[in-house]
Amino acid sequence: MIEKKINSLSIWFFENLLRYEEIGHFVSTRTGGYSNTPYDSFNLSFNIGDNPQDVLRNRKLLAGALGLSLTSLATAKQIHDCHVKIVSEELRGKGSIDYKGAIDATDAMVTDVPGVCPMVLVADCVPILMYDPTRKVIGVAHAGWKGTLQLIAPKTVKVLHEKFGCSPEDIVVGIGPSIGQCCYQVGQEVVSQVERVFGTKKDYIRKESADGKGYFDLQAANLKQLLQAGIPEKNVELAKVCTFDHPDLFFSHRHAKGKTGRFGVGIVLR
Ligand SMILES: [Zn+2]
């Protein structure tokens, strides 16, 4: 990934997606916005107790920095499930200026409508961007441990394939900053679900303790699922950045013990 300073903001970009001039994309950081502690300062979520006026000003900063209108953004009420929503023209701008207008109960969005920018909001969960340059379709998904174990990433690929005719081998993917295995201890109940879903835990869980806890590699799990869905490894860029280790740069839910903001990850066809 590379970082660019745009006005007051620091925005990160995937090098593999920057190659395509017909799309825009972004991974925002937490600096350069208006929100106060503990949402300081570039919080993009309306749903976590921050002052909505500050969030709106932050969203306007984001849109301005990217050359988008505020109502290009489309956001969802994320529920850590595995529903993939097709963002049609009628859903343009849903959730762009408040939470109540956001798309219901969705953790991944895909669209082929130019100027619609689906954005997920994260703070430790794995954000995933997808682009098919052949079919000109984009997608974004958000995978915490629940979404990962419900296969949200390959389900998004499946929708791209079945509804838009995309071939998995054409899809270019960016896997963004999220909590790394270094810092992501999970309980025995999650460890056993990992083993059940993947058929093994050895590639995903490390440093198991006597009480059954272990460290879960969410990024590796999502990468593996995408490769199994037919995405070529050369098409995938992994941020390899742990949000917990960089709380000055990215919001980390676990580092902040739950009281923090959300950064945004989105993509748009121009
Ligand atoms: Zn870490």
Tell me the quaternary state. single chain
Distance between the termini: 21 Å
What's the level 1 CATH class of the largest domain?
A: Alpha Beta
Kindly estimate the percentage of residues that lie in beta strands according to DSSP: 15-25%
User: Could you please say which CATH topology of the largest domain applies here?
Assistant: CNF1/YfiH-like putative cysteine hydrolases
Architecture of the largest domain, according to CATH? 4-Layer Sandwich
- Helix/strand structural class: alpha+beta
Q: How do the helices and strands follow one another from N- to C-terminus?
A: EEHEHEEEEEEHHEEHEEHEE
Mind telling me the C-alpha Rg? 17 Å
Helix fraction by DSSP (H/I, runs of at least 4): 10-25%
CATH H-level name of the largest domain... which superfamily?
Answer: CNF1/YfiH-like putative cysteine hydrolases
Topology overview:
Elements: E1 2-6, E2 9-13, H1 15-18, E3 23-28, H2 52-66, E4 73-74, E5 84-86, E6 108-111, E7 117-122, E8 126-132, E9 137-143, H3 145-149, H4 152-164, E10 172-175, E11 185-186, H5 188-198, E12 205-206, E13 214-216, H6 218-228, E14 236-238, E15 263-269
Parallel strand pairs: 4-7, 5-6, 10-14
Antiparallel strand pairs: 1-2, 2-3, 3-15, 6-9, 7-15, 8-9, 8-10, 11-13, 12-13
Characterization of this structure:
The chain has 270 residues and is α+β, with helices and mostly antiparallel strands. The chain has 6 helices and 15 strands. The chain folds into 2 domains: 232 residues, 4-Layer Sandwich (CNF1/YfiH-like putative cysteine hydrolases); 36 residues, no CATH class. Strands 1-2-3-15-7-4 form a 6-stranded mixed beta sheet. It has a 6-stranded mixed beta sheet with strand order 5-6-9-8-10-14. A hairpin with a 7-residue loop joins strand 12 and strand 13. The radius of gyration is 17 Å and the shape is globular. The protein starts with a strand and ends with a strand. The model has no long low-confidence stretch (mean pLDDT 97). The structure holds zinc ion. The site of zinc ion has 6 residues, from loops.
